[in-house]
Design a protein that fits this description.
- Two copies of one chain form a homodimer.
- By secondary structure, chain A is mainly alpha-helical.
- Chain A is built from ten helices and no strands.
- In chain A, helix 3 packs antiparallel against helix 4, helix 3 (60-84) packs parallel to helix 6 (122-140) and helix 9 (174-195) packs antiparallel against helix 10.
- Chain A starts with 8 loop residues before the first helix and ends with a helix.
- Chains A and B meet through helix 1, helix 5, helix 8, helix 9 and helix 10 of A and helix 1, helix 5, helix 8, helix 9 and helix 10 of B.
- Chain A binds a DNA duplex through residues 8-10, 13-14, 17, 38-41, 48-52, 54-55, 59-60.
Chain lengths: 219, 219
Amino acid sequence: MSTAGKETPRERYRAQLRAEIKERAWEQIAAAGAPGLSLNAIAKHMGMSGPALYRYFAGRDELITELIRDAYRSLADTVRTAAASGADLAGLGHALRTWALEDPQRYFLIYGTPVPGYHAPDDVTLIASDIMDALLVAAQSAGGPATAAAAAKTPLESHLAEHRQWAGDHPASPAALRRALHFWTRLHGILSLELAGHFAGMGFDPAELYENELRHLSQ
Amino acid sequence: MSTAGKETPRERYRAQLRAEIKERAWEQIAAAGAPGLSLNAIAKHMGMSGPALYRYFAGRDELITELIRDAYRSLADTVRTAAASGADLAGLGHALRTWALEDPQRYFLIYGTPVPGYHAPDDVTLIASDIMDALLVAAQSAGGPATAAAAAKTPLESHLAEHRQWAGDHPASPAALRRALHFWTRLHGILSLELAGHFAGMGFDPAELYENELRHLSQ
DNA sequence: TGTACATCAGTGAACGCGCGTTCACTGATGTAC
DNA sequence: TGTACATCAGTGAACGCGCGTTCACTGATGTAC
């Protein structure tokens, strides 16, 4: 994709098989969580012998890392696409929720329980900050008209204005920094509890809770 | 503890060993996450043979369930103790954060990635609703003076007022229901991202974010 | 177009490992008379 | 206080399993002349 336009049949076949392996991997993760992912089981499910997969992935770790990368990429694409079509913060929130409900285990692969000792490679971290960038853009244009009350920075906004490495050189106001973080933490709070089933049987509709947070994000 | 006051030396010994097994289990979970928990490894670490542990737990599943139960109990105790000493919602929030930072993997055992197919036993669910109860009490007395603005229910509050199974017969106002849920989802959002390391290297202090949410909970 | 060689996909056997769990057994600790 | 018996903790061997991974090999596919 990046180098030459010509793709030999063999390369195409390789790419296809890699993709199918990943599909099966996602199925396994959906069924038993990430710890239950097994190369041998995937191979058997595809009608191949276990060692065959080593033609396509160096090992289990590389496969899992690739899945995490794909999950991040998919989320980044979702957010960027929504932003590109003119969505505001609430629109991004809806896109996020749809994406999360689509495949809870994919969500948890990014935001779930961390495996002690595991560190995502740098390129994955880069995608994560891409997502943050898109959020900052939307958060910046979400500000209401500049009133005196809006101009006075809250204690949190002051702190964020002074510790904004994560925002890089993005021209985001303190209020925008705050909005972007609230978007992230508040929506994640609801989504992760919902996807983990903690609201089950409580009676209310998580979507109402979610909408309510979206409504107040621009404040 | 619950039945007779007399405890034979053997019973005491049993209780002690059960406790030590659980300690080692927590150490393992802290080191490699819940999926890495192994009865044989615990036994080896205690200088015993693997099968010996079957005198104390029916199997791996029972041990894990017991750990989850303990985690819930510990959290419930923390919240109740804070409430009993007169803490308001913000006070409960601080207690929660301290508890979470104390042992992140214990936090994730409750609120982390769910294992597909696993369902916590009923008594654990009961403890969870005990926690909710304590939250509701604090959320109820967190209301400001009853103004006209506070009396008008927001859309979310209306929805919650009509779907309040989870609150049981608790005399909580719609605003209190909302506050309790916000407490839960917003603080969990920050805590889980913080504990999972998603804020690492971003520069700001998660505690500031947390404090800010606490300040706004009574609104 | 045809032959000679290199590349590559996939197999099957094998290694070593650690897991949960069962079982028959030994030896120590407690209980009853 | 002493003996006879029951209870219980812990052991070591064993079973069956699935895992990740390596290796030497076969057979098909592509490339070069």
